[in-house]
Specification:
single chain; 384 residues; alpha/beta; Rossmann fold; Tyrosyl-Transfer RNA Synthetase; 2 domains; seven-stranded mixed sheet; three-stranded antiparallel sheet; globular; binds iron/sulfur cluster
Protein backbone atom coordinates (compact mmCIF):
# COMPACT_ATOMS: atom_id res chain seq x y z
CA UNK A 1 0.00 0.00 0.00
CA UNK A 2 1.45 3.31 -1.06
CA UNK A 3 0.38 6.62 0.45
CA UNK A 4 1.33 9.86 -1.21
CA UNK A 5 0.89 13.28 0.31
CA UNK A 6 1.79 16.56 -1.34
CA UNK A 7 5.28 16.35 0.14
CA UNK A 8 5.72 12.78 1.31
CA UNK A 9 5.63 9.10 0.37
CA UNK A 10 4.87 6.23 2.75
CA UNK A 11 5.10 2.55 1.89
CA UNK A 12 6.05 -0.35 4.18
CA UNK A 13 9.58 -0.02 2.73
CA UNK A 14 9.99 3.70 2.26
CA UNK A 15 9.22 6.85 4.21
CA UNK A 16 10.37 10.10 2.68
CA UNK A 17 9.54 13.75 3.06
CA UNK A 18 7.77 15.87 5.65
CA UNK A 19 5.04 13.55 6.91
CA UNK A 20 1.61 15.00 7.58
CA UNK A 21 0.46 12.73 10.39
CA UNK A 22 -3.09 14.09 10.34
CA UNK A 23 -3.37 13.10 6.69
CA UNK A 24 -2.04 9.63 7.50
CA UNK A 25 -4.93 9.14 9.96
CA UNK A 26 -7.32 9.74 7.07
CA UNK A 27 -5.40 7.66 4.56
CA UNK A 28 -5.18 4.65 6.85
CA UNK A 29 -8.66 5.21 8.31
CA UNK A 30 -7.42 4.94 11.90
CA UNK A 31 -8.35 6.97 14.98
CA UNK A 32 -6.27 9.38 16.99
CA UNK A 33 -5.43 8.37 20.58
CA UNK A 34 -7.40 10.91 22.58
CA UNK A 35 -6.59 12.65 25.85
CA UNK A 36 -9.42 10.65 27.48
CA UNK A 37 -7.78 7.38 26.43
CA UNK A 38 -4.46 8.50 27.86
CA UNK A 39 -6.19 9.39 31.12
CA UNK A 40 -7.91 5.99 31.09
CA UNK A 41 -4.49 4.32 30.81
CA UNK A 42 -3.31 6.38 33.78
CA UNK A 43 -6.40 5.42 35.77
CA UNK A 44 -5.92 1.71 34.99
CA UNK A 45 -2.18 1.36 35.55
CA UNK A 46 -1.19 4.53 37.44
CA UNK A 47 1.28 5.78 34.82
CA UNK A 48 1.59 6.75 31.16
CA UNK A 49 4.75 6.10 29.16
CA UNK A 50 6.28 9.24 27.59
CA UNK A 51 5.87 7.74 24.11
CA UNK A 52 2.12 7.69 24.73
CA UNK A 53 1.70 11.00 26.56
CA UNK A 54 3.86 12.72 23.92
CA UNK A 55 1.82 11.20 21.11
CA UNK A 56 4.72 9.33 19.54
CA UNK A 57 2.24 6.46 19.64
CA UNK A 58 -0.62 8.62 18.43
CA UNK A 59 -3.18 6.51 16.59
CA UNK A 60 -5.02 3.24 17.06
CA UNK A 61 -7.65 0.75 16.09
CA UNK A 62 -9.85 -0.56 18.90
CA UNK A 63 -7.36 0.29 21.65
CA UNK A 64 -10.30 1.93 23.43
CA UNK A 65 -12.10 -1.45 23.28
CA UNK A 66 -9.00 -3.24 24.63
CA UNK A 67 -8.88 -0.76 27.55
CA UNK A 68 -12.58 -1.20 28.23
CA UNK A 69 -12.24 -4.97 28.26
CA UNK A 70 -9.19 -4.67 30.54
CA UNK A 71 -11.17 -2.44 32.95
CA UNK A 72 -13.85 -5.13 33.13
CA UNK A 73 -11.26 -7.80 33.98
CA UNK A 74 -10.53 -9.25 30.54
CA UNK A 75 -6.87 -8.85 29.70
CA UNK A 76 -5.52 -8.29 26.23
CA UNK A 77 -2.22 -9.76 25.04
CA UNK A 78 0.64 -8.13 23.19
CA UNK A 79 2.19 -9.28 19.96
CA UNK A 80 5.24 -7.92 18.21
CA UNK A 81 8.17 -9.19 16.18
CA UNK A 82 11.25 -8.43 14.19
CA UNK A 83 12.46 -9.93 10.94
CA UNK A 84 16.25 -10.07 11.12
CA UNK A 85 17.72 -8.29 8.13
CA UNK A 86 21.11 -6.94 7.16
CA UNK A 87 22.94 -5.13 9.92
CA UNK A 88 22.45 -5.14 13.69
CA UNK A 89 19.42 -3.83 15.58
CA UNK A 90 19.23 -0.07 15.89
CA UNK A 91 17.18 2.46 17.83
CA UNK A 92 14.44 2.39 15.19
CA UNK A 93 13.87 -1.25 16.21
CA UNK A 94 14.41 -0.62 19.91
CA UNK A 95 11.80 2.10 20.41
CA UNK A 96 8.76 -0.15 19.71
CA UNK A 97 10.30 -2.86 21.90
CA UNK A 98 10.86 -0.38 24.76
CA UNK A 99 7.23 0.71 24.51
CA UNK A 100 6.05 -2.90 24.39
CA UNK A 101 8.13 -3.65 27.49
CA UNK A 102 6.38 -0.85 29.32
CA UNK A 103 2.95 -2.04 28.15
CA UNK A 104 3.67 -5.56 29.37
CA UNK A 105 4.83 -4.37 32.77
CA UNK A 106 2.12 -1.77 33.26
CA UNK A 107 -0.79 -4.03 32.24
CA UNK A 108 0.82 -7.29 33.42
CA UNK A 109 -0.04 -9.15 30.22
CA UNK A 110 1.38 -11.88 28.01
CA UNK A 111 3.65 -10.97 25.13
CA UNK A 112 4.40 -13.00 22.01
CA UNK A 113 7.45 -12.11 19.92
CA UNK A 114 7.71 -13.61 16.47
CA UNK A 115 11.11 -13.84 14.83
CA UNK A 116 10.31 -14.69 11.22
CA UNK A 117 13.47 -16.44 10.14
CA UNK A 118 12.21 -16.96 6.59
CA UNK A 119 10.63 -13.62 5.61
CA UNK A 120 13.73 -11.73 4.45
CA UNK A 121 15.02 -14.86 2.70
CA UNK A 122 11.73 -15.28 0.84
CA UNK A 123 11.76 -11.57 0.06
CA UNK A 124 15.25 -12.12 -1.41
CA UNK A 125 16.75 -9.55 0.94
CA UNK A 126 19.15 -12.08 2.44
CA UNK A 127 21.12 -14.55 0.33
CA UNK A 128 21.25 -17.67 2.50
CA UNK A 129 19.31 -19.22 5.35
CA UNK A 130 22.64 -19.65 7.15
CA UNK A 131 23.07 -15.85 7.13
CA UNK A 132 19.55 -15.49 8.49
CA UNK A 133 20.30 -17.89 11.33
CA UNK A 134 23.36 -15.93 12.40
CA UNK A 135 21.37 -12.71 12.47
CA UNK A 136 18.54 -14.36 14.35
CA UNK A 137 20.92 -15.35 17.14
CA UNK A 138 22.15 -11.75 17.49
CA UNK A 139 18.60 -10.34 17.52
CA UNK A 140 17.40 -12.92 20.05
CA UNK A 141 20.27 -11.99 22.40
CA UNK A 142 19.27 -8.33 22.36
CA UNK A 143 15.58 -9.10 22.87
CA UNK A 144 16.53 -11.33 25.80
CA UNK A 145 18.42 -8.33 27.25
CA UNK A 146 15.51 -5.92 27.19
CA UNK A 147 13.93 -7.09 30.43
CA UNK A 148 10.65 -8.69 29.32
CA UNK A 149 8.81 -10.72 31.95
CA UNK A 150 10.40 -14.19 31.64
CA UNK A 151 7.18 -15.99 32.61
CA UNK A 152 4.83 -13.92 30.47
CA UNK A 153 6.88 -13.75 27.26
CA UNK A 154 7.19 -16.25 24.45
CA UNK A 155 9.76 -15.68 21.73
CA UNK A 156 9.74 -18.08 18.80
CA UNK A 157 11.30 -18.49 15.38
CA UNK A 158 8.95 -19.54 12.63
CA UNK A 159 11.05 -22.39 11.24
CA UNK A 160 11.51 -23.90 14.67
CA UNK A 161 7.90 -23.45 15.84
CA UNK A 162 6.21 -24.18 12.49
CA UNK A 163 4.57 -27.44 13.63
CA UNK A 164 2.42 -25.41 16.02
CA UNK A 165 1.73 -22.57 13.57
CA UNK A 166 0.85 -24.50 10.46
CA UNK A 167 -2.76 -25.62 11.15
CA UNK A 168 -3.80 -22.07 12.00
CA UNK A 169 -1.88 -20.68 9.01
CA UNK A 170 -3.80 -23.03 6.69
CA UNK A 171 -7.14 -21.88 8.15
CA UNK A 172 -6.10 -18.23 7.78
CA UNK A 173 -4.56 -18.62 4.30
CA UNK A 174 -7.77 -20.08 2.86
CA UNK A 175 -9.59 -16.90 3.86
CA UNK A 176 -7.19 -14.42 2.24
CA UNK A 177 -7.72 -13.96 -1.48
CA UNK A 178 -4.69 -13.23 -3.60
CA UNK A 179 -6.23 -9.97 -4.85
CA UNK A 180 -6.42 -8.65 -1.27
CA UNK A 181 -2.88 -9.76 -0.40
CA UNK A 182 -1.57 -8.25 -3.61
CA UNK A 183 -3.24 -4.90 -2.91
CA UNK A 184 -2.02 -4.75 0.68
CA UNK A 185 1.52 -6.07 0.26
CA UNK A 186 2.20 -4.95 -3.30
CA UNK A 187 3.10 -8.44 -4.57
CA UNK A 188 4.26 -8.55 -8.19
CA UNK A 189 4.96 -11.25 -10.74
CA UNK A 190 8.50 -11.59 -9.37
CA UNK A 191 7.35 -12.18 -5.77
CA UNK A 192 8.24 -15.65 -4.49
CA UNK A 193 5.27 -17.88 -3.71
CA UNK A 194 6.71 -18.30 -0.20
CA UNK A 195 6.29 -14.61 0.48
CA UNK A 196 2.70 -14.74 -0.75
CA UNK A 197 1.91 -17.35 1.92
CA UNK A 198 3.90 -15.60 4.66
CA UNK A 199 1.17 -13.12 5.77
CA UNK A 200 -0.97 -16.09 6.86
CA UNK A 201 1.81 -17.14 9.25
CA UNK A 202 2.26 -13.60 10.53
CA UNK A 203 -1.41 -13.53 11.54
CA UNK A 204 -1.30 -16.79 13.53
CA UNK A 205 0.03 -15.32 16.83
CA UNK A 206 -3.08 -13.08 16.97
CA UNK A 207 -4.94 -16.39 17.50
CA UNK A 208 -2.77 -17.65 20.37
CA UNK A 209 -5.41 -16.51 22.87
CA UNK A 210 -9.13 -15.76 22.76
CA UNK A 211 -8.45 -12.35 24.32
CA UNK A 212 -7.85 -9.32 22.12
CA UNK A 213 -4.38 -9.01 20.60
CA UNK A 214 -2.81 -5.55 20.85
CA UNK A 215 0.00 -4.75 18.44
CA UNK A 216 2.21 -1.69 18.97
CA UNK A 217 3.78 -0.80 15.61
CA UNK A 218 4.51 2.04 13.21
CA UNK A 219 1.49 3.41 11.36
CA UNK A 220 2.63 2.07 7.97
CA UNK A 221 2.24 -1.47 9.32
CA UNK A 222 -1.48 -1.06 9.99
CA UNK A 223 -2.72 -2.43 6.61
CA UNK A 224 -1.20 -5.82 7.43
CA UNK A 225 -3.45 -6.13 10.43
CA UNK A 226 -6.56 -5.07 8.55
CA UNK A 227 -6.48 -8.52 6.93
CA UNK A 228 -6.57 -10.12 10.38
CA UNK A 229 -9.47 -7.86 11.32
CA UNK A 230 -11.40 -9.01 8.24
CA UNK A 231 -11.23 -12.67 9.17
CA UNK A 232 -10.72 -12.93 12.96
CA UNK A 233 -14.35 -13.01 14.06
CA UNK A 234 -15.24 -15.53 11.36
CA UNK A 235 -12.87 -18.01 13.00
CA UNK A 236 -13.96 -17.24 16.58
CA UNK A 237 -11.28 -14.73 17.56
CA UNK A 238 -11.12 -11.05 18.38
CA UNK A 239 -10.09 -8.37 15.95
CA UNK A 240 -6.58 -7.08 16.46
CA UNK A 241 -6.13 -3.72 18.09
CA UNK A 242 -3.19 -1.66 16.87
CA UNK A 243 -1.40 1.12 18.74
CA UNK A 244 0.36 3.09 16.03
CA UNK A 245 3.44 5.23 16.21
CA UNK A 246 4.88 7.97 14.09
CA UNK A 247 8.13 7.13 12.31
CA UNK A 248 11.25 7.25 14.43
CA UNK A 249 13.11 10.43 13.50
CA UNK A 250 16.62 10.07 12.11
CA UNK A 251 19.58 11.96 13.55
CA UNK A 252 20.40 13.34 10.13
CA UNK A 253 17.64 15.82 9.41
CA UNK A 254 14.00 16.78 9.75
CA UNK A 255 12.69 14.31 7.15
CA UNK A 256 12.89 10.55 6.77
CA UNK A 257 13.31 7.99 9.52
CA UNK A 258 16.01 5.99 11.26
CA UNK A 259 17.31 3.43 8.83
CA UNK A 260 20.05 0.79 8.77
CA UNK A 261 20.87 1.88 5.23
CA UNK A 262 21.82 5.34 6.57
CA UNK A 263 24.11 4.50 9.51
CA UNK A 264 24.46 8.18 10.46
CA UNK A 265 20.66 8.42 10.94
CA UNK A 266 20.56 6.06 13.88
CA UNK A 267 22.53 4.28 16.59
CA UNK A 268 23.10 0.55 16.48
CA UNK A 269 23.09 -1.47 19.68
CA UNK A 270 26.57 -2.62 18.70
CA UNK A 271 27.98 0.93 18.37
CA UNK A 272 30.75 1.62 20.89
CA UNK A 273 30.74 4.72 23.09
CA UNK A 274 33.01 6.64 20.73
CA UNK A 275 30.74 5.99 17.73
CA UNK A 276 27.60 6.89 19.69
CA UNK A 277 29.19 10.17 20.73
CA UNK A 278 30.33 10.93 17.18
CA UNK A 279 26.88 10.30 15.72
CA UNK A 280 25.13 12.47 18.29
CA UNK A 281 27.68 15.29 18.09
CA UNK A 282 27.25 15.25 14.27
CA UNK A 283 23.44 15.17 14.41
CA UNK A 284 21.36 17.72 12.55
CA UNK A 285 20.20 20.59 14.78
CA UNK A 286 17.97 23.61 14.56
CA UNK A 287 20.77 25.72 16.02
CA UNK A 288 22.22 28.94 14.63
CA UNK A 289 25.56 28.92 12.77
CA UNK A 290 27.42 30.63 15.64
CA UNK A 291 27.18 30.69 19.43
CA UNK A 292 26.69 34.46 19.30
CA UNK A 293 23.68 34.11 16.98
CA UNK A 294 22.29 31.24 19.05
CA UNK A 295 22.40 33.53 22.13
CA UNK A 296 20.74 36.37 20.23
CA UNK A 297 18.11 34.53 18.18
CA UNK A 298 17.67 31.18 19.96
CA UNK A 299 17.42 27.81 18.21
CA UNK A 300 14.64 26.03 16.40
CA UNK A 301 13.73 22.81 18.25
CA UNK A 302 10.81 22.13 15.87
CA UNK A 303 13.17 21.03 13.09
CA UNK A 304 15.97 19.74 15.33
CA UNK A 305 16.81 16.02 15.27
CA UNK A 306 18.49 16.27 18.69
CA UNK A 307 15.31 17.71 20.20
CA UNK A 308 13.22 14.97 18.55
CA UNK A 309 15.45 12.38 20.19
CA UNK A 310 15.09 14.23 23.51
CA UNK A 311 11.33 13.72 23.20
CA UNK A 312 12.06 9.99 23.01
CA UNK A 313 14.68 9.65 25.72
CA UNK A 314 14.31 12.57 28.16
CA UNK A 315 11.57 11.07 30.28
CA UNK A 316 11.04 13.98 32.66
CA UNK A 317 8.44 16.36 31.16
CA UNK A 318 9.82 19.32 33.13
CA UNK A 319 13.33 18.75 31.81
CA UNK A 320 12.07 18.41 28.24
CA UNK A 321 10.10 21.67 28.53
CA UNK A 322 13.22 23.37 29.88
CA UNK A 323 15.28 22.18 26.90
CA UNK A 324 12.65 23.57 24.55
CA UNK A 325 12.36 26.95 26.24
CA UNK A 326 16.09 27.37 26.91
CA UNK A 327 16.79 26.55 23.25
CA UNK A 328 14.24 29.09 22.05
CA UNK A 329 15.54 31.70 24.48
CA UNK A 330 19.14 31.21 23.37
CA UNK A 331 20.18 29.97 26.83
CA UNK A 332 21.06 26.45 25.69
CA UNK A 333 23.86 25.77 23.22
CA UNK A 334 23.68 22.80 20.85
CA UNK A 335 26.91 21.24 22.15
CA UNK A 336 25.58 21.01 25.70
CA UNK A 337 22.18 19.85 24.47
CA UNK A 338 23.80 17.03 22.50
CA UNK A 339 25.87 15.95 25.51
CA UNK A 340 22.69 15.75 27.57
CA UNK A 341 21.12 13.54 24.91
CA UNK A 342 24.25 11.41 24.73
CA UNK A 343 23.93 10.63 28.44
CA UNK A 344 20.34 9.43 27.99
CA UNK A 345 21.05 7.33 24.90
CA UNK A 346 24.18 5.80 26.40
CA UNK A 347 22.11 4.99 29.50
CA UNK A 348 19.68 2.92 27.37
CA UNK A 349 22.60 1.06 25.77
CA UNK A 350 24.41 0.50 29.09
CA UNK A 351 21.29 -1.09 30.55
CA UNK A 352 21.01 -3.47 27.58
CA UNK A 353 24.71 -4.38 27.70
CA UNK A 354 24.48 -5.03 31.44
CA UNK A 355 21.53 -7.37 30.91
CA UNK A 356 23.31 -9.03 27.99
CA UNK A 357 25.53 -10.73 30.57
CA UNK A 358 22.51 -12.90 31.40
CA UNK A 359 21.17 -13.11 27.84
CA UNK A 360 21.59 -16.88 27.45
CA UNK A 361 19.67 -17.66 30.63
CA UNK A 362 16.92 -15.17 29.81
CA UNK A 363 16.66 -16.47 26.27
CA UNK A 364 16.15 -20.03 27.48
CA UNK A 365 13.30 -18.76 29.65
CA UNK A 366 11.45 -16.73 27.05
CA UNK A 367 11.95 -19.39 24.38
CA UNK A 368 11.49 -22.65 26.28
CA UNK A 369 11.40 -22.78 30.09
CA UNK A 370 9.41 -19.79 31.33
CA UNK A 371 5.79 -20.30 32.30
CA UNK A 372 4.24 -18.97 29.08
CA UNK A 373 6.96 -20.42 26.83
CA UNK A 374 6.55 -23.94 28.23
CA UNK A 375 2.76 -23.70 27.80
CA UNK A 376 3.20 -22.56 24.18
CA UNK A 377 5.21 -25.65 23.28
CA UNK A 378 1.97 -27.55 24.05
CA UNK A 379 -0.24 -25.09 22.15
CA UNK A 380 -2.34 -26.34 19.27
CA UNK A 381 -4.81 -24.39 17.19
CA UNK A 382 -8.40 -25.51 17.74
CA UNK A 383 -10.06 -25.76 14.36
CA UNK A 384 -13.39 -27.08 13.13
FE1 LIG B 1 18.40 21.51 18.93
FE2 LIG B 1 19.28 21.57 21.42
FE3 LIG B 1 20.44 23.08 19.54
FE4 LIG B 1 18.02 23.67 20.40
S1 LIG B 1 19.88 23.67 21.62
S2 LIG B 1 18.67 23.59 18.30
S3 LIG B 1 17.14 21.65 20.79
S4 LIG B 1 20.42 20.85 19.64
Amino acid sequence: MKVFGDDFVVTPWEVEGEIDYNKLLEYFGVDRITGEMIEEVRRLVGDVHPFLRRQIFYAHRDFDKALKEYASGQKFFLYTGIAPSKGPMHFGHLVPFLFTRWMQKAFDVNLYIMVPDEEKYLAKKVDSLKDVDERVRAVERIIASLGFDPDKTFLFRDREYIKHLYDAAVVVARRINYSVAKAVFGFGSDTSIGLVFYPALQIVPTLFEKNRPVIPCAIDQDPYWRIQRDIAEKIGHKKTSTVLSKFMPGLDGPTGKMSASKPESTIFVTDDEKTVKKKIMNAFTGGQPTVKEQREKGGNPEICSVYKWHTLFTEDDKELAEIYHDCKAGKLMCGECKLRLLKKVQGVLDEIHEKEKHAEKNLEKIKYDGKLASQMWEWEFEYE
